[in-house]
Amino acid sequence: MNGLQDLFRKKTMDFTIHQTSGSSGLQKALGAFDLTMLGVGAVIGTGIFVMTGVVAAQYSGPAIILSFILSGIACAFAALCYAEFASMIPASGSAYTYSYTVFGELVAWILGWDLILEYGLACSVVASGWSAYFQELMKGFGLHLPTVISAALDPAKGTYVDVMATVIVAILSAVLLCGVKESSRINDIMVLIKIGVVLLFVVVGAFYVKPSNWTPFMPYGFGGVVQGASTAFLAYIGFDAVSSASEEVRNPQRDMPIGILSALGVCMVLYISVSIVLTGMVPYTKLNVGDPVAFALRFVHQDWVAGFVSLGAILGITTVLFVMMYGQTRLFFAIGRDGLLPRAIAKLTKKTKTPVLSILLTWLMATVFSALVPLDELAELVNIGTLFAFIVVSIGVVVLRVKRPDVERKFKVPFVYVIPFLSVLACGFLMVNLSGQTWLRFLIWFAVGLVIYLLFGFRNSVLAKGQEMER
Question: Any transmembrane segments, and where (predicted)?
Fold first, then answer.
């Protein structure tokens, strides 16, 4: 043991890739189309069905189009960095695995622990949102859940457990247990239906666009556009879950960059298209509602299409939850395989090569949080976790270009000394503007993780056991 030096021991790329083969590796069953659908599934959810109205009404007005273009470009900076890493290191764990080879074990653990928080809370927040939407749909058929089981623990409101949140988490956990090939097919179908619903809104809504609603185009000035872009940026961030799938891709060097960047491109086009039609149909001042897309259709008396949009919103949230849960299971698997968490977590079934314990752990975490804990105040922790991961990955690309220029890169970030810097700048700006309470909770989570690493991970990692490493 060499003291502080051991805290930063690194896995070689060869060893990391070796871990993905044989009995310890996941089944390789996905292609570029599946990856694109995972990305679209993660990004197109409440953002397009809710956030479009909020950003237009409060920040950008009709210039929301510019807000989504700016935020999409900013997110593309981070996406390019992820694409380079994913093509070099096709292993589960996403940013956690990348940082293990660049910065060493302690930084990898910090980032992995951070991502556990991000995915865990994201699953819970999205499950709670799904429950709320589904209960609204039930009310349309005259069905009402008893108040006591309709939402998370809040005695003042008479609610104690969110049953519908636990139901959807259990269903998607069962889907994940079927194996990546089968579960990705189900996701593909749901995403295609969701895209169809969004396109239905665009086509029908286009006939009710009044160009006068786009005037004034920039009612809050360019400052409002930038503020709107900062808010809209968070609508894109689910794409990083795509990199969690790299170990299960048949041709990761080619397909990972295609999947990540095409998913972001499709989502950007959909966001901009919906924003153009939405602000053309309804004056932007009326869009500060919980369901702006459905509201716009009701506004022009197209109630039958509004019903389809409500269904699309539920499917949208379902796919977001599915991809978040998938990312969480692969993160637990990768950390367990490295020994920083109990290695039993990474055990695979023989037939489908599915990490059962990782899936059950994800199910338990999402069920407890979404069923019992009101998460409104904790939702920002999802954002700070994601932004932190983006920053580490962006810096890591530059570090590895300097330290290992010899490594073959099937995909390279263009302008490597500019784009990662812009990514860090954009993400750092958003992190600084998060609340003090969010930072405090983030630091407390970080401290707890550090204790767990020093008591368990440091002594039990595969590198501590004498496996191959580089210093």
Answer: 35-57, 63-83, 95-112, 160-179, 191-208, 220-239, 260-284, 304-327, 356-375, 381-402, 414-432, 438-456
136 within 8 A of 306, measured Cβ to Cβ: no
**Which burial class, exposed, middle or buried, applies to 465 when counting CB atoms under 10 A from its CB (0-12, 13-18, 19+)?**
exposed
- Number of Cβ within a 10 Å radius of residue 222: 11
Residue 90 DSSP code: -
**In b/e form, how buried is each residue of 195-215, taking b as 16+ CB within 10 angstroms?**
bebbeebeebbeebbeeebbe
Domains by residue range for the chain, with CATH:
4-460 (1.20.1740.10)
Q: What are phi and psi of 259, to 5 degrees?
A: -65, -45
Which residues make Cβ contacts (< 8 Å) with residue 413, sequence separation at least 6?
Answer: 80, 81, 83, 84, 397, 419, 420
Interval 60-117: pLDDT, tens: 999 999 999 988 888 889 999 999 998 888 888 889 999 999 999 999 999 999 889 8
Per-residue pLDDT of 216-236, as tens digits, reads 999 999 888 888 888 777 777
* 12 φ/ψ angles, rounded to the nearest 5 degrees: -75, 155
